[in-house]
Structure formats: C-alpha cells, structure tokens
Design a protein that fits this description.
This protein is α/β, with parallel strands linked by helices. The protein has two domains: about 40 residues, no CATH class; about 170 residues, P-loop containing nucleotide triphosphate hydrolases (Rossmann fold, 3-Layer(aba) Sandwich). It is built from eight helices and seven strands; from the N terminus they run βαβαβαβαααβαβαβ. Strands 4-5-6-3-7 form a five-stranded parallel beta sheet. Strands 1-2 form a two-stranded parallel sheet. β5, α7 and β6 form a beta-alpha-beta unit. α6 packs parallel to α7.
Length: about 210
C-alpha cells in the first residue's frame, strides 16, 4: 500500500452509498479510507434565508464538496414547486453543448436586438462567435452562452444553478461571474437567482445579496 500524498484527504465520503470492492481496492492504493457518511442536513435558517429572497436578488451558496449545497438547493426546489412551478434547477457542471447545427445567435429565444444585447453583456459580442454552434466555441464562451440562454428563457420566478462556474479556470470564472450579474440585473430583474459553488472567490465577482456559507 502506498502512503497517502502529503496534504491529501484521509477518506472520501459516499453519501450513504455502499462501496464496491473495486473502489475499496483503488482507494487502498492511495492510503485513503472510504466512509458512508451523509452530507449534513441544511439548517432550517439557511432555507428560510433563501425563501425570503426578494425579486431580482441573487444568493450565493459556498462550501466544500459534500457540505450540503446541492441538498439545500433540492430542498429549496421542493418548497418552491407548489408556489412557483416555473422554478428551475440547472447543473452547469456539464456546459450546454446542444443545439445541433444552429448558430449561437439563433439559440437565444429573444428578438434580435435584445438577443445581441444579452450576448454582449455576457461577453459574446464577437460576430464570429455568434455564427458558430455551441460545440464550436471555447469552454469559457460556452459557460457564458449557457448562462445567457438560461436568462433568456427564465423571465420570472426562481433560477437555481448548481456547480456554478466550477469547470472554469478562476480568471475566466471571475469574468463570467461579473457578466452574469450584469445580465441578470437587466434581463431578469424579477427572477430570484440562487447559485452554488465550492469556490469562495466567486463572491467577490458576483456580488451576492445573500451569501450562505455551508
């Protein structure tokens, strides 16, 4: 058995799932244990703080992986389902890649001038980007596009976003976070937005109205 690397986690939690023999053998090679611990249940105060968001406000959830961010989003969605059926939960860990052969500009469901304005706020004003498909633009551009398209489709209610910008390098994530907040204020002024990420640095750039640290 090889010793665990310096600074590495001593165990991984499976959120209640049983560990396969293959997983146990693999972890053993790194000197890492496996537990079936569940993520801590979110406190009712955290949920109440989110439910109290006024229209147009943005809340940020941060915390290490396994701290309960996704669980809190799911609980929030369940509470909203009856009163706000238009509430949506997006996971941006898989950046939008659909659309087939349609161009970026054709995938924004707004009149042309409004679509151009939204994409400009998202940092996608380059005409060469507008003419490409979602598969042909860079990872950072896809993140901007995915968020812009979500804002174009969600004009009221609640927008919940898990794994907010976690796939991006931190410099790109900072730029996208700033552009997302500007676009949300102009294009979704009545939408309550809740985003979750493991990266605390996002708070500086997205300027949340409410910051919940898990």
């Amino acid at each position: 058995m090889s010793p665990a690397p310096t600074g590495a986690a001593k165990r991984i939690a499976l959120n209640g799932r049983p560990a396969s023999r293959r997983l146990l053998r693999a972890c053993c090679r790194f000197g890492i244990g496996v537990t079936r611990e569940r993520a801590p249940a979110p406190a009712s105060g955290e949920l109440d703080a989110l439910l109290a968001l006024p229209p147009g406000a943005l809340a940020l959830l941060t915390g290490a992986s396994g701290s309960g961010k996704s669980q809190l989003l799911q609980r929030l969605l369940q509470r909203l389902r009856d009163a706000a059926p238009e509430a949506t939960l997006c996971d941006l860990s898989s950046i939008y890649r659909g659309g087939g052969s349609r161009s970026v500009i054709d995938l924004i469901p707004l009149p042309l001038e409004r679509a151009l304005r939204l994409l400009a706020l998202a940092g996608l004003a380059d005409p060469f980007v507008l003419g490409r498909t979602a598969r042909e633009i860079s990872v950072g551009e896809r993140a901007r596009f995915a968020l812009a398209r979500a804002l174009a489709k969600q004009r009221s209610g609640w927008m919940l976003i898990d794994e907010f910008l976690t796939t991006l390098d931190r410099e790109t994530a900072a730029a996208v976070a700033r552009s997302f907040r500007r676009a949300a204020r102009e294009f979704a002024p009545e939408v309550r937005v809740v985003v979750a990420t493991a990266h605390e640095d996002v708070a500086e750039h997205v300027a949340p109205d409410v910051h919940v640290r898990m």
